[in-house]
């Protein structure tokens, strides 16, 4: 069974600081990778996804993530965070080619201080 | 286009009672998924429908949980009888056929007292 590890449970940053949230997964096969975000009081939303191709993926709101196959990692980055990025971020992994269940990490709560 | 909707948004019941959660997917989405998040833990897969058929129900905790998707449209998840450990947020997601992308609903927060 695949598993997803998010190393940071709670991150506090000042505005304009750079962000990197770690994500590692355990499955050795071909995977689809996702980052979801849940802003306070809102739905889970897809930030970005990787299915194949360029391992550096750009998403909405200036976020990007890099898939490093050799490290089983898919870390999320943003060069300069804003107060509005305060939210909970979830890394998720699905088997490639199957419209199947997605395995989520435990989530990272990001608090951005103005 | 309307998103995934879930009803109710909150439910508070006593142990031993029955609760039914409803999910209306985005129109035309064949794939429908149920997930649950117990407080502080990861979001866990419960089951996956393709149209009205259960594709994968490996995540259902036990036989107190019953999911249906009659006609391949909306889905219900019934918990009978509810136990304290069933408390959590139940998410529904839907997605078009032949894709892994899932669109999530707002969730139903279930509290079992």
Describe this structure in words.
The complex is a heterodimer of chains A (114) and B (113). By secondary structure, chain A is mainly beta. Chain A has no helices and twelve strands. In chain A, the strands form three sheets. In chain A, strands 2, 5, 6, 10, 11 and 12 form a six-stranded mixed sheet that branches. A four-stranded antiparallel sheet of chain A has the order 3-9-8-7, with no helix packed on it. The model of chain A has no long low-confidence stretch (mean pLDDT 91). Chain B is mostly beta strands. In chain B, strands 2, 4, 5, 6, 9, 10 and 11 form a seven-stranded mixed sheet that branches. In chain B, strands 1-3-8-7 form a four-stranded antiparallel sheet, with no helix packed on it. Chain B starts with a strand and ends with a strand. Classes of the chains: A mainly beta (114), B mainly beta (113).
What is the strand and helix layout of this fold?
The complex is a heterodimer of chains A (114) and B (113).
Chain A: E1 4-5, E2 10-14, E3 19-21, E4 24-25, E5 31-38, E6 44-50, E7 56-58, E8 64-68, E9 73-78, E10 87-95, E11 102-104, E12 108-113
Parallel strand pairs in A: 2-12
Antiparallel strand pairs in A: 1-4, 3-9, 5-6, 5-10, 7-8, 8-9, 10-11, 10-12
Chain B: E1 5-7, E2 10-13, E3 19-24, E4 31-37, E5 43-50, E6 53-56, E7 65-68, E8 75-79, E9 88-95, E10 103-104, E11 108-112
Parallel strand pairs in B: 2-11
Antiparallel strand pairs in B: 1-3, 3-8, 4-5, 4-9, 5-6, 7-8, 9-10, 9-11
Q: How much of the sequence of chain A is in beta strands?
A: over 45%
- Mean pLDDT of chain A, to the nearest integer, reads 91
> Which sheet architecture does the biggest sheet of chain B show?
7 strands, mixed
Termini separation of chain B: 37 Å
Structural shape of chain A:
globular
Pattern of helices and strands of chain A: EEEEEEEEEEEE
Helix/strand-derived class of chain A?
mainly beta
Overall strand count of chain A: 12
Low-confidence stretches of chain A: none
Average residue pLDDT of chain B: 93
Number of helices of chain A: 0
- Total of helices of chain B: 0
Determine the fraction of residues in helical runs of chain A and give it as a percent range. under 10%
What oligomeric state do the depicted chains represent? heterodimer
Model regions low in confidence, pLDDT < 50 over at least 5 residues of chain B: none
């Amino acid at each position: 069974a695949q598993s997803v590890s998010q190393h940071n449970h709670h991150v506090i940053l000042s505005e304009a600081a750079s962000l990197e949230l770690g994500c590692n997964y355990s499955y050795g096969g071909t995977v689809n990778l996702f980052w979801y975000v849940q802003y306070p009081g809102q739905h889970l939303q897809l930030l970005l996804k990787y299915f194949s191709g360029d391992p550096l993926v750009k998403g909405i709101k200036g976020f990007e993530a890099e898939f490093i196959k050799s490290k089983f990692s898919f870390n999320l980055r943003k060069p300069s965070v804003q107060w509005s990025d305060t939210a909970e971020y979830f890394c998720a992994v699905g088997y490639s080619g199957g419209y199947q269940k997605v395995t989520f990490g435990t989530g990272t709560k990001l608090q951005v201080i103005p | 286009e309307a998103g995934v909707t879930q009803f109710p948004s909150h439910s508070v019941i006593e142990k031993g009672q029955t609760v039914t959660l409803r999910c209306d997917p985005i129109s035309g989405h064949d794939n429908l998924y149920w997930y649950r998040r117990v407080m502080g833990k990861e979001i866990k897969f419960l089951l996956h429908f393709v149209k009205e058929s259960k594709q994968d129900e490996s995540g259902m905790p036990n036989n107190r949980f019953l999911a249906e998707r009659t006609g391949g449209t909306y889905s219900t998840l019934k918990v009978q009888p509810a136990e304290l450990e069933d408390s959590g947020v139940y998410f529904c997601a839907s997605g078009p056929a032949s894709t892994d992308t899932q669109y999530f609903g707002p969730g139903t927060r279930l509290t079992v007292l």
